[in-house]
Design a protein that fits this description.
binds 1,3,4-trihydroxy-5-OXO-cyclohexanecarboxylic acid; Rossmann fold; 5-stranded parallel sheet
Length: about 150
């Protein structure tokens, strides 16, 4: 076992599959987590998945579970555009975080989506590649640890 990866999804991502499928696709969160778990197994890792609509619950989870892991794959949802608390949290973590977005934030209609206050604290950002973004982020975190 190479180690543990975390996959964290923020507000409204529990609605995947029925939430604006033209933008976010038809897969449910459970399906994305299952796909990611399979890839983690192939990579020789354990994957712990967490989703919350609450900023505080996400911070508490990261504080508790990120230390000792290989890193975090994080889709912060709309917290991306507003949460300095999440930015500070990522800066304080002892492990890398790859930020993932299903949609291309820079191609979205709303102007606020291209403002990302969390990204400066991330190792990198993958956006617009749909569910594959989560897998690519996991591969990066495992590769960089070798
Ligand atoms: C999202 C993009 C955000 O702007 C939005 O608030 C989400 C999902 C994405 O995965 O494309 O909830 O993070």
């Amino acid at each position: 076992m190479r180690g543990r990866l975390l996959m964290v999804n923020g507000p409204n991502l529990n609605l995947l599959g029925r939430r604006e499928p033209a933008i976010y696709g038809h897969s449910t969160l459970a399906e994305l987590e299952e796909m990611a778990r399979r890839r983690a197994t192939e990579l020789g890792c354990e994957l712990i998945c967490f989703q919350s609509n609450s900023e505080g619950a996400i911070l508490d989870f990261l504080h508790d579970r990120a230390p000792g892991s290989l890193g975090v794959v994080l889709n912060p949802g709309a917290l991306t555009h507003s949460s300095y608390a999440l930015y500070d949290c990522l800066r304080a973590l002892p492990v890398p975080v790859v930020e993932v977005h299903l949609s291309n934030l820079f191609a979205r209609a709303e102007e606020f989506r291209s403002r990302d206050v969390v990204a400066p604290a991330a190792a990198g950002v993958i956006c617009g590649l749909g569910p594959r973004g989560y897998l690519l982020a996991m591969e990066f975190l495992v590769d960089r640890d070798e």
